[in-house]
Design brief:
The complex is a heterotrimer of chains A (252), B (340) and C (275). By secondary structure, chain A is mostly helical. Chain A has one domain: MetI-like fold (Orthogonal Bundle). Chain A contains eleven helices and no strands. The radius of gyration of chain A is 22 Å and the shape is globular. Chain B is globular and about 60 Å long. Chain B folds into two domains: 167 residues, Periplasmic binding protein-like II (D-Maltodextrin-Binding Protein, domain 2, 3-Layer(aba) Sandwich), CATH 3.40.190; 147 residues, Periplasmic binding protein-like II (D-Maltodextrin-Binding Protein, domain 2), CATH 3.40.190.10. The relative contact order of chain B is 0.18. With 340 residues, chain B is of the alpha/beta class. Chain C has a single domain, classed as MetI-like (MetI-like fold, Orthogonal Bundle). The longest helix of chain C has 34 residues. The chains are: A mainly alpha (252), B alpha/beta (340), C mainly alpha (275). Chains A and C meet through helix 1, helix 3, helix 4, helix 5 and helix 6 of A and helix 1, helix 3, helix 4, helix 5 and helix 7 of C.
Chain lengths: 252, 340, 275
């Protein structure tokens, strides 16, 4: 069985990575089309001459990191809080936030902000994007952590407290480490969802807060340009390196 | 914990405006200025321009409709000017600050949508027609030719209810901006009859497929068609015989803008013949600036796609702003077509 | 347990402020009338909901449910073995997880365009198939339901892998061992022991995939060529080109109601099973 699983895993990862690999290979193609012309770095050069793109990337990174940190912390706390004494209302609200089509969440948040800003005289900006991203990420975190919590014995906590730990101690030193991989999984999910979001972000972004998906979407609407290939290749390489480095660090 | 405060701090910094020079916020269609248009303006006037782009009027309107968007200048298609006026979104233009208005072509100095140019300055205009591969013989020159089963699977129409229904209306000899329910139902039948032949409903994305030959004929705007023809010489553009729509995107200054003088200076800058010519040439779209025509490279000036002769132009019509009821009916019909 | 109440407080604040409040606004919108040129206006009315009960819109809703269901099932079958593989790897678990996530850190749009690039008539798939000689003229792989499904499944695969992995990883290894000791063959152990035990993860994953698939509009638009209308496209059109926010709000409310009932039903069954 392990052999089948292994083979399947290879096919699975190939399927996952094939489209982007193809894009990356063709990002070195001087022609815009699938016909190979000759090797060229033109599209990469074009990226660095595009200030919109650079700014968009920077904004996306800031928003993603901020939103992930906030939503993972808030979401983990919430999942733990709901663990034994569930609140139907809160759980229901969280699920509802997932169920809402993105366009509706986007419009609703825009309406809310615009209504608030009439009194406060503020403008849309990066902070509204972060607030929005946290709002839709919390539910993902809660779901993942809750699923994991269900596999943890409910007696673990009691045992810790019987041994003298405080409530907070039991949580921090016993449950949290047990949740470890779950928290990482949830954080990764939140990070991805945030970095990738187009619909909601485009609604609540301000004048100065274009994110990478917004820039790419605008580019792509004008007809697929290999600059997009180049960008995706760069992002893939960057995160790939990050993964390799973090694995090395983990092993030491 | 420290890291979190650091990140929050960086966020706050990024959100703060970096204004030391005066700022102007311009929101325009994508690819509607030449690469150096904005930077030249910044250099000459010593200001910083925040320039962002959008792909549809609705996208722009959603941001602007509250009167608190932060943008100074936007470029609606002329049919949206009346609604924007009704919402009190536009500030009137001071003509004494816009001497460049005299550069405009006579046709655009008193357009039907803004007789005195009190609110808007025409920026670019174009029509919708048929772009096709020359291998298709006989060449499609009428909307009706797009219902030919020869083109099955190799034909695209615009993903835009106004344009697509408009083509159906013209095919059966009706007005592009018809509001009569019976006429619209007939147009709907035409669209549904055509649907099996249509590969997809695409806008500018179809350009690459035209060049590569995947698509043989497409309903497309003249500007995108010109870009396709530039990249694929086997392509050609036809202004349909039954009639076609003409569009004009105009610059307006939003009422919320506090930088009226600077905004006017920007508009006047855009009216300069050389600037308008450079933008029109780069973007492959027709300029309403008569004086600019002299600065266009010959190939662009002579392009029949962008600047058709008057005999063809008189077949065109300027779509009307649709009243809300007609809009509703058209939207429902559009959904029915797409869902069929 | 006072600590617990503090723990849920931040979430409450966020949900009330940035979800319940906007939600209330949309709910209110669904009872208003569309403004002349967009936005909303006064007379309160039931009209938007009345318009909904029409074959046209109900068919759209049905088709969307079917599409989302198929996509979810496909995701499940593809993701489960992968999650199993990762949870059983002696080392490099995080590496594999991150390899799963890696494609998804490039933009969703980029991935969709990658499929456009691959599936075009002159794209890689057609070119390769023609070179090998399997086909002689390009197949139209794009602009149909299959392409949309492919895009949806590809886009939401990690949302299925991660929750299932999170559950599997915590699975007591002695249980499958016990099954083996009792003579069960590996496949039987898989189906009769492991899958049922990973139920919470499967349910979580299914919900995380089904819901967005239901409301998807970018994928059907781009890969489907705008040829079909799913409920996500419908809502999106109402809020943009059609400028009929009240009707769009009504459609969203109906959608949310149906899915809430569905999800609630599932969760009720789950918690009943636990007690």
């Amino acid at each position: 069985m392990r052999r089948w699983l292994g083979l399947y895993a290879v096919a699975f990862f190939a399927f996952l990575h094939l489209p982007l690999l193809t894009l990356s290979v063709f990002s070195f193609n001087s022609s815009r089309f699938t016909v190979w012309e000759h090797f060229s770095l033109d599209w990469y050069r074009a990226i660095f001459h595009d200030p919109e793109l650079i700014e968009g990337t920077w904004n996306s990174v800031i928003v993603a990191i901020a939103a992930t940190l906030i939503s993972t912390v808030v979401g983990t706390l919430c999942a733990y809080g709901l663990w034994k004494r569930g609140s139907r209302l809160l759980t229901g609200t969280l699920y509802l936030s997932l169920v809402t089509p993105e366009i509706v969440t986007g419009i609703a948040l825009l309406a809310l902000f615009q209504w608030m800003f009439r009194w406060l005289h503020w403008h849309l900006g990066l902070y509204t994007v972060i607030l929005a991203h946290v709002a839709f990420s919390i539910a993902y975190v809660v779901i993942v952590i809750s699923a994991r919590l269900r596999t943890i014995s409910p007696n673990l906590e009691e045992a810790a407290m019987d041994l003298g730990a405080s409530e907070w101690g039991a949580f921090f030193y016993v449950i949290l480490p047990a949740l470890g991989p779950g928290i990482i999984a949830a954080a990764l999910l939140a990070l991805t969802v945030s970095f990738d979001d187009y619909v909601i972000t485009s609604m609540v972004a301000g004048v100065d807060s274009q994110t990478l998906p917004m820039v790419i979407y605008a580019m792509a609407r004008r007809g697929a340009s290999p600059i997009i290939n180049a960008i995706s290749a760069l992002i893939t390489v960057f995160f790939g390196l990050l993964i390799v480095i973090s694995e090395r660090v983990r092993e030491t | 914990m420290n890291r979190r405060y650091f990140i929050l701090g960086m966020t706050a910094l990024a959100g703060c405006s970096r204004a030391s020079r005066p700022r102007l916020n311009v929101y325009n269609w994508s690819a509607y200025v030449a690469p150096d248009t904005i930077s030249n303006f910044e250099a000459e006037f010593g200001v910083k321009v925040r320039y962002a782009t959008y792909e549809s009027n609705e996208e722009m309107l959603a941001k602007v409709v509250t009167g608190n968007s932060g943008w100074d200048i936007v470029f609606p298609t002329y049919t949206r000017i009346k609604p924007m006026l009704d919402y009190g979104l536009i500030q009137p233009l001071q003509h004494e600050w816009l001497p460049g208005l005299s550069n405009l072509d006579p046709r655009f100095r008193a357009p039907t949508w803004d007789r005195d140019l009190r609110w808007s300055v025409p920026w670019m205009w174009f029509a919708t027609g048929i772009v096709y591969n020359r291998d298709v013989r006989p060449a499609p020159t009428r909307w009706a030719d797009l219902w030919d089963s020869r083109l099955k699977g190799r034909l695209t129409m615009l993903d835009d209810p106004e344009d697509m229904l408009g083509a159906c209306l013209k095919k059966i000899g009706l007005s592009f901006s018809s509001t009569d329910p019976a006429e619209l139902q007939r147009a709907k039948q035409e669209a549904i009859a055509q649907k099996p032949l249509v590969r997809a409903y695409l806008n500018a994305e179809v350009r690459d497929q035209l060049v590569s030959g995947d698509v043989l004929a497409a309903q497309l705007w003249a500007t995108t068609a010109q870009q396709a023809i530039d990249a694929g010489p086997t392509l050609a553009f036809a202004y349909p015989e039954e009639g076609f729509p003409l569009y004009c995107d105009c610059a307006v200054i939003l009422r919320e803008s506090q930088r009226s003088r600077l905004a006017h200076q920007f508009l006047d800058y855009l009216l300069r013949p050389k600037v308008a010519a450079a933008a029109a040439d780069y973007s492959r779209v027709a300029t309403p600036n008569g004086a600019a025509k002299g600065f266009l490279p010959e190939a662009t000036r002579d392009s029949s796609t962008l600047y058709p002769p008057p005999s063809i132009l008189e077949r065109g019509e300027w779509p009307q702003t649709l009243p809300p009821d007609a809009q509703r009916l058209r939207d429902r019909i559009w959904t029915e077509i797409k869902a069929s | 347990m006072k600590l617990r109440s503090w723990f849920v407080l931040p979430t409450w604040i966020w949900m009330v402020g940035l979800f319940a409040a906007p939600f209330a606004i949309v709910f209110a919108y669904s009872f208003l009338t569309r403004g002349v040129y967009g936005g909303v206006e006064h007379p309160w009315t039931w009209e938007n909901y009345q318009r909904l009960f029409d074959t046209l819109y109900l068919t759209i809703l049905l088709r969307s449910f079917a599409m989302a269901l198929v996509a979810t099932l496909l995701c499940l079958f593809l993701a489960f073995p992968a999650a199993l593989f990762i949870s059983r790897s002696p080392k490099h678990k995080n590496l594999y997880l991150q390899l799963v996530m890696l494609p998804f850190w490039t933009s969703f749009l980029v991935r969709t365009y990658a499929w456009l690039f691959l599936l075009r008539d002159t794209g890689l798939v057609n070119t390769v198939l023609q070179k090998i000689g399997i086909i002689h003229s390009p197949l139209q792989l794009l602009y149909n339901d299959g392409a949309v499904l492919l895009g949806l499944v590809y886009g939401y695969l990690p949302f299925m892998v991660l929750p299932i992995y999170a559950t599997l990883e915590r699975l007591d290894p002695s249980l499958p061992e016990a099954a083996a000791d009792l003579g069960a063959r590996p496949w039987a152990t898989l189906l009769r022991v492991i899958v049922p035990l990973s139920r919470p993860g499967i349910i979580a994953g299914a919900i995380l995939v089904f819901i967005p698939c239901l409301g998807a509009y970018l994928t059907p638009d781009l890969l489907g060529g705008g040829r079909t209308v799913l409920v996500g496209n419908l809502v999106q059109t109402q809020f943009t080109t059609a400028r009929d926010w009240p009707f769009g709000s009504a459609v969203s409310m109906l959608l949310m109601l149906l899915v809430t009932v569905l999800v609630w039903g599932i969760l009720r069954r789950e918690s009943e099973q636990l007690t």
